[in-house]
Design goal:
CATH architecture: 3-Layer(aba) Sandwich
Largest sheet: 5 strands, parallel
Radius of gyration: 14 Å
Strand content: 5-15%
Helix content: 25-40%
Number of helices: 5
Order of helices and strands: EHEHEHEHEH
Number of strands: 5
Distance between the termini: 20 Å
CATH superfamily: Response regulator
Number of domains: 1
Structural class: alpha/beta
Strand order of the largest sheet: 2-1-3-4-5
């Protein structure tokens, strides 16, 4: 079985640390690739910039992304992910502190699969990430990915 990669797009160091700790605490051992801004996330997904030459046959099983990101914001990342044949079917979960209706509406309009508000309490945050991991990495059946020759 091939390893399922998680792409975490998070610019806040504390939230990154919590998000990386939560899967380990819940025995989710998948590789987590961290992009600290929207530009790095796009470089990873499309094999450009610092990720030039990356094997594009290995795509994340899920993208967990914040909305408020430097360089390229989360909405634009989502827009570009959905616009590309290579990435349009990748599950994208917006993981954010925003509780704004307009952010939820815009996220879903752009094709987010889920919108999860980050819990403030550590134990609740760990439980939320556990549930995300169980659903997206174990229960969910992703769309088949066409392999390049």
């Amino acid at each position: 079985m091939e390893e399922k990669v998680i792409l975490l797009v998070e610019d806040n160091a504390d939230d990154e640390m919590l998000t990386l700790r939560a899967p380990k605490k819940n025995n989710i051992r998948n590789q987590v690739v961290v992009a600290r801004n929207g530009s790095d996330a796009l470089d990873y997904l499309f094999g450009t910039g610092i990720h030039a030459g990356r094997d594009l046959n290995v795509m994340p099983q899920i993208i967990l992304q914040n909305l408020k990101l430097p360089k390229v914001d989360g909405f634009e990342v989502l827009n570009r992910v959905r616009a590309s044949e290579k990435t349009k079917l990748l599950p994208v979960v917006i993981l954010t502190t925003s509780n704004e209706d307009q952010d939820r509406i815009r996220g879903y309009d752009l094709g987010a699969n889920s919108f999860v508000r980050k819990p403030v309490a550590f134990e609740k945050f760990i439980e939320a990430v556990r549930q995300l991991g169980v659903y997206w990495l174990i229960l969910n059946e992703p769309a088949p990915v066409a392999r390049r020759p």
